[in-house]
Specification:
With 160 residues, the protein is mainly alpha-helical. The protein has 2 domains: 1-66, no CATH class; 68-160, no CATH class. The protein is 75% helix and 0% strand. The chain is built from 6 helices and no strands.
Length: 160
């Protein structure tokens, strides 16, 4: 019972932090033109991306109410691991493509440490089961559709 209560408190805390972070990620993506501008609207008094938080909160509430916790935890884990893989790939790519760019932090032993990170994340992903991979693939496909139908043509990088 104590372990269940601790797990519930831990999951609730993590979800709350992820919701705040995700709303800011969406706001930044909207400022870059990758999402509709509504996601970038900031509350005049609080200074937070409130519409983004509202949309994400409603979407997460619907998913949480209709998805078993075991499935949800595996999907969140898979998404997080996939994001870590993308970061490791970006470190390797940017180090080669833009070696002279000033960086606020240094990653040692490139490309070996990021490659180890990729392999570690893939190893953890392998243990999540085939249905988690299918769901992750669906979410990635949805993201790619949004990018290629909307964000690609409105990106500030493209319009420069």
């Amino acid at each position: 019972m104590f372990i269940d209560a601790g797990a519930l408190i831990g999951i609730t805390t993590v979800i709350l932090v992820l919701l705040y972070g995700q709303s800011r990620i969406f706001a930044t993506m909207a400022n870059d033109g990758l999402l509709p501008p509504v996601f970038a609207r900031v509350h005049p008094r609080l200074g937070t991306p409130w519409i983004s938080q509202l949309i994400i909160g409603v979407a997460v509430a619907i998913v949480a109410a209709t998805t078993p916790i075991d499935t949800l935890s595996k999907l969140v884990g898979a998404g997080t691991l996939f994001a870590f893989i993308l970061v490791c790939i970006a470190v390797i790519y940017l180090r080669r493509a833009e070696p002279g760019t000033p960086r606020p932090f240094r990653t040692p032993w490139v490309p070996w440490l990021p490659l180890l990170g990729i392999l570690s994340c893939l190893g953890l992903l392998a243990g999540l089961g085939e249905y988690t991979w299918i769901r992750l693939g669906i979410w990635i496909a949805i993201g790619l559709v949004i990018y290629f139908l909307y964000g690609r043509f409105r990106s500030r990088l493209r319009t420069k």
